[in-house]
Amino acid sequence: MFKFKQFHVNQERCAMKIGTDGVLLGAWTPLINNPYNVLDIGAGTGILSLMLAQRSNAEQIDAIEIDEDAYEQCVENFETSPWGDKLFCFHAGLDEFVDEPEDEYDLIISNPPFYTDDYKSDNSSRDLARFEDALPFEELIEAAALLLSDNGIFSVIIPFKEEERFVSMCKELDLFPLKITRVKGTPTSENKRSLLAFCRIEQTALIDELVIEISRHNYTPEYIELTKDFYLKM
């Protein structure tokens, strides 16, 4: 069990455990449009939906998860949270969900699988959660373009090396960068991740940088400020 300040998450049945990427995305995602409803694509444990339930006034938070064990765990985590009445998980792939869309969403969020190299492990559930071929960026972006409301925000975390390609693919479907934060582990390390938020209005994106640690477990003030509402020891 992983305990946060306002909720806890069981994760023993999920291939992908809670990590820094998910917590960063859940804490960083802009809520400037005060979303009424949210869609979490590839929910895993449900961590992103739970963080957004804590942070926002959203009335409806839908999640989709294709892996059966992860789906069942996500439902369990939703039901034991303080926001169980507005959290709902669908056991479906994105292609099935998009085939019969019932809603547009003011916020679409995803921590997509993004190991694109040829290496695969012996754990098929973990591979599904870790490799981009399980949820290609193209499929994710097309779904966001279809399901996002006019004033909606689409928010993801991806490897920094994929940022340019991802932004270009979004622009082809009239999704434009609103905010970009490049994440590095320490002040001297290379950029590792890109937090990206898109909207339907073309504008000059706010671009900044986030450093996580000054030294091992010595976190930067910016990282503490971002995550302090969630981590018990921040």
UniProtKB/TrEMBL annotation:
Under the heading CDD domains, the entry gives: AdoMet_MTases
Q: What class of enzyme is it?
A: transferase
Record has Ribonucleoprotein as a keyword? no
The keyword tRNA processing belongs to this UniProt entry's keyword annotation = yes
Which terms are listed as keywords in the entry? Answer: Cytoplasm, Methyltransferase, S-adenosyl-L-methionine, Transferase, tRNA processing
Record's InterPro entries?
DNA_methylase_N6_adenine_CS, rRNA_Ade_Mease_Trfase_CS, SAM-dependent_MTases_sf, Small_mtfrase_dom, tRNA_Adenine-N(6)_MTase, tRNA_adenine-N6_MeTrfase
GO biological process, any: methylation
Major place of localization? cytoplasm
EC assignment: the record states 2.1.1.223
Q: Which GO terms describe its molecular function?
A: methyltransferase activity
- Where do the Methyltransferase small domain residues begin and end? 37-123
Reaction it catalyzes: adenosine(37) in tRNA1(Val) + S-adenosyl-L-methionine = N(6)-methyladenosine(37) in tRNA1(Val) + S-adenosyl-L-homocysteine + H(+)
Name the domain of life.
Bacteria
Which PROSITE patterns does UniProt cross-reference here?
Answer: N6_MTASE (PS00092), RRNA_A_DIMETH (PS01131)
List the subcellular locations.
Cytoplasm
- What job does the chain carry out? Specifically methylates the adenine in position 37 of tRNA(1)(Val) (anticodon cmo5UAC).
Q: Return the similarity comment.
A: Belongs to the methyltransferase superfamily. tRNA (adenine-N(6)-)-methyltransferase family.
- The name of this protein is tRNA1(Val) (adenine(37)-N6)-methyltransferase
Task: Supply the source organism for this entry.
Answer: Flavobacterium lacisediminis
